[in-house]
């Protein structure tokens, strides 16, 4: 974290704690510089951050003053999806959105891409270069089917933070979390099986299920605490559900962390009804608070929790390095990997292993947690400023996704088409439901640096929403 960010965080905490009151003048730039032993430009940058968060306001020739605090918008209520098996039918919308990610002229708020511009990733570049120069035989040869042993050892160390005690032999390397989930479903399920998901759910998961000819049943989900155990129990009693896909840590798109009691409850339910839990932990390392949340897998005693994750969101999607802990399905999944994708790419695995082993990974993740937390605060302020009254906004506990529920008359599918003409791309909420619900919602990627260009996009988004309400 830079000095100005550290100072901005310190002042923001003091404001939130009431040490500075509305209308009170803040210390001068010079006095604050002397108090904290930093340069004047550092203080100025810190004040700019607080101004962007609408915590302070400048007054010409007078200095900075504490701004009146606006009430936070409420959190969206518990979702109420259609509770019967359905098939996802919005492939064309997703394809159009994915095509826009490769167009540099489009400003994409719709993607799930992390910030890969941070200097804390420079050691990874060095490791990639070193691997290419000094491990030519390994890089150009076949990988072991389970994946690079050194990487699996490092991942086993990482998973200890989430409470999962593993050995390298428990882990299979894949081409990303989506690949882990795909191989797991292929190995365990058959066409026509019913899979329960949180609602709203990541559209990539919904399309994966559609591609594998699996049916989806959406379960009501609370934006603060996760899937409704009661609704899930009713669905399990009514339908022959084969498995449950859960994103319990820094959920995409709602951002919640499921409380430990609920994790244990859903695991107990799965044990009673002999159901597989597919746990997507791709955002788990980005939880705001440390230590990171425990995985459901950490309480599993009979190997029914299949844990999937990757470096896609914490480091970079271009690494294409993920992993799966298949439990009792290890041999099936290894066979499926051989059949479906074969071995992986040694170069990125070796570089990722060194990046973790040398301590660079933990430093990078600590930095990104702080950056994303501050980004989400800024984007929430912008939504409050530029969007119409009556919105509900999630309070993410990690990751970098913000979910906004707009007044019911707003159709974000139509709004997103209009924004495309302005070279702006957003993800309407209907993409996150197999039944097409949440058309009045939008997911925003807060990994995008909160600069003036992105502030302008948020303003244009708010204007388009207001027009849609007329």
UniProtKB/TrEMBL annotation:
Q: Which CDD domains is this protein grouped with?
A: AAT_like (cd00609), WHTH_GntR (cd07377)
| UniProt keyword Transcription regulation present | yes
HTH gntR-type domain sequence ranges? 1-69
- InterPro entries to which the protein is assigned, alphabetical: Aminotransferase_I/II_large, HTH_trans_reg/aminotransferase, PyrdxlP-dep_Trfase, PyrdxlP-dep_Trfase_major, PyrdxlP-dep_Trfase_small, Tscrpt_reg_HTH_GntR, WH-like_DNA-bd_sf, WH_DNA-bd_sf
What SUPFAM superfamilies has UniProt attached to this entry?
Answer: PLP-dependent transferases, Winged helix' DNA-binding domain
Q: Name the Gene Ontology molecular function terms of this record.
A: DNA binding; DNA-binding transcription factor activity; pyridoxal phosphate binding; transaminase activity
Mind listing the UniProt keywords for this protein, alphabetically? Aminotransferase, DNA-binding, Pyridoxal phosphate, Transcription, Transcription regulation, Transferase
Q: Which PANTHER family match?
A: HTH-TYPE TRANSCRIPTIONAL REGULATORY PROTEIN GABR, TRANSCRIPTIONAL REGULATORY PROTEIN
The record's comment on protein family reads: In the C-terminal section; belongs to the class-I pyridoxal-phosphate-dependent aminotransferase family.
Q: What is this protein called?
A: PLP-dependent aminotransferase family protein
Organism, by scientific name, is: Citrobacter amalonaticus
């Amino acid at each position: 974290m830079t000095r100005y960010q550290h100072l901005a965080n310190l002042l923001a905490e003091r404001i939130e704690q009431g040490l500075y009151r509305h209308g009170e003048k803040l210390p001068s730039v010079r006095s604050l510089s002397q108090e904290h032993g930093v340069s004047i430009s550092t203080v100025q940058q810190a004040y700019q951050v607080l101004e962007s968060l609408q915590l302070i306001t400048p007054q010409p020739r007078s200095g900075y003053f504490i701004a009146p605090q606006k009430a936070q918008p409420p959190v969206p209520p518990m979702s109420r999806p259609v509770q019967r098996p359905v098939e996802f039918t919005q492939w064309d919308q997703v394809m159009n959105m994915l095509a826009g990610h490769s167009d540099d002229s489009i400003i994409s708020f719709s993607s799930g891409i992390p910030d890969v511009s941070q200097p804390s990733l420079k050691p990874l570049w060095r490791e990639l270069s070193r691997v290419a120069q000094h491990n030519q035989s390994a890089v150009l040869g076949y990988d072991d089917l389970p994946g690079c042993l050194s990487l699996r050892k490092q991942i086993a160390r990482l998973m200890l933070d989430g409470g999962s005690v593993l050995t390298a032999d428990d882990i299979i390397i894949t081409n990303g979390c989506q690949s882990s989930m795909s191989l797991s479903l292929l190995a365990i399920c058959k066409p026509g099986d019913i899979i329960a998901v949180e609602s709203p759910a990541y559209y990539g998961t919904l399309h994966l299920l559609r591609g594998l000819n699996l049916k989806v049943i959406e379960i009501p989900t609370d934006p603060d605490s996760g899937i409704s155990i009661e609704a899930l129990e009713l669905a399990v009693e009514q339908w022959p559900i084969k498995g449950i896909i859960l994103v319990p840590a820094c959920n995409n798109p709602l951002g919640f962390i499921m409380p430990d009691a609920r994790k244990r409850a859903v695991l107990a339910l799965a044990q009673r009804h002999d159901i597989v839990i597919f746990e997507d932990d791709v955002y788990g390392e980005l939880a705001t608070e440390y230590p990171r949340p425990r995985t459901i897998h950490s309480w599993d005693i009979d190997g029914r929790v299949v844990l999937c994750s990757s470096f896609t969101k914490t480091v970079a999607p271009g690494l294409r390095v993920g992993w799966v802990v298949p439990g009792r399905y290890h041999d099936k999944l290894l066979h499926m990997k051989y059949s479906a994708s074969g071995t992986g790419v040694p170069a990125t695995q070796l570089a990722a292993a060194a990046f973790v082993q040398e301590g660079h990974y933990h430093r990078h993740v600590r930095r990104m947690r702080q950056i994303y937390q501050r980004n989400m605060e800024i984007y929430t302020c912008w939504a409050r400023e530029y969007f119409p009254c009556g919105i509900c906004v999630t309070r993410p506990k990690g990751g970098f996704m913000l979910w906004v529920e707009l007044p019911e008359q707003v159709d974000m599918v139509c709004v997103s088409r209009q924004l495309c003409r302005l070279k702006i791309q957003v993800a309407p909420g209907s993409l996150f439901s197999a039944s097409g619900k949440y058309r009045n919602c939008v997911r925003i990627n807060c990994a995008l640096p909160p600069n003036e260009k992105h502030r302008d996009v948020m303003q244009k988004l708010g204007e388009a929403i207001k027009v849609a309400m007329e």
